[in-house]
Amino acid sequence: MGPPSRDRFGGTGGLLIAFEGLDQSGKQTQAELLRDRLVEIGRLVRLLSFPAYDTAIGVEIGRALLGDREYGADVMQLLYVANRYEWKPQIERELDRGTILICDRYLASSVAYGEAQGLDAAWLMDMQKHLPQPDITFLLDIDPDVSARRKTADRDKYERDLELLERVRNSYMRQAASAGWTTLDANRERDVVAADIWRAVSARCDAAAPGPG
Ligand code: ATM
Question: What is the whole-number distance in angstroms between the Cα of residue 158 and the centre of ligand 1?
Fold first, then answer.
């Protein structure tokens, strides 16, 4: 017999859900609300956030975002991608045991921010093809100026550049035309957005739940 199947729908019930969008679009809030609802119905859930600043590569990313390093856009995205590969074994283990993993940013952030800085989107996707792919990606869509206005303090270097944020949003929109994406207007009330997310996730959870027997 081969290794256990990683078909998450017919098998263990694990799911990988990603939240994407500009800073201040409510990714963390929505990820936490979704976690709480899934815990309420008895599912095993884990929240992850990328960049994961608590690894060696994550520490380096943090320094670069604060301006203590002068890496080019390509090196930065290689670091973000490597940071997710650092987590790959753990993500696979969790999915195999049926955990619903909720990621605040994942693969598509590298494509969006890298593409916005002139990098090749195909290259950014290709080097991430051996990471566990998300089952559902939610794009929480807000205007770049809303993102910039909501955050006035402690902005990192991306967050100060409106034109760049516009290009990030365009990349997200392009990516969101693919299967597995759901785009939501995140200018609406928090609970209205959460209800849309719950409708999409609970449908998938029912499909993923281990059947009787
Ligand atoms: P957080 O603010 O979500 O921790 O992310 C830091 C920055 O890293 C964020 N900039 N802004 N706003 C987006 C950027 N980023 C990438 O460019 N590629 C990635 O893969 C990830 C995870 C984040």
Answer: 8
Q: Which atom of ligand 1 is nearest to the CA of 113?
A: 17
| Nearest atom of ligand 1 to the alpha carbon of 106 | 22
Contacts of 25 (CB under 8 A, 6+ apart): 140, 141, 142, 147, 186
Domain 15-207, CATH 3.40.50.300 — does that match? yes
Q: What pTM was estimated for this model as a whole?
A: 0.91
The string of pLDDT tens digits covering residues 123-174 is 999 999 999 999 999 999 999 999 988 876 665 556 568 999 999 999 999 9
Mutate to test the pocket of ligand 1, among 76, 127, 158, 159 (most ligand atoms within 8 A of CB): 158
Over residues 3-59, the pLDDT tens digits come to: 343 445 434 579 999 999 999 999 999 999 999 999 999 999 999 999 999 999 999
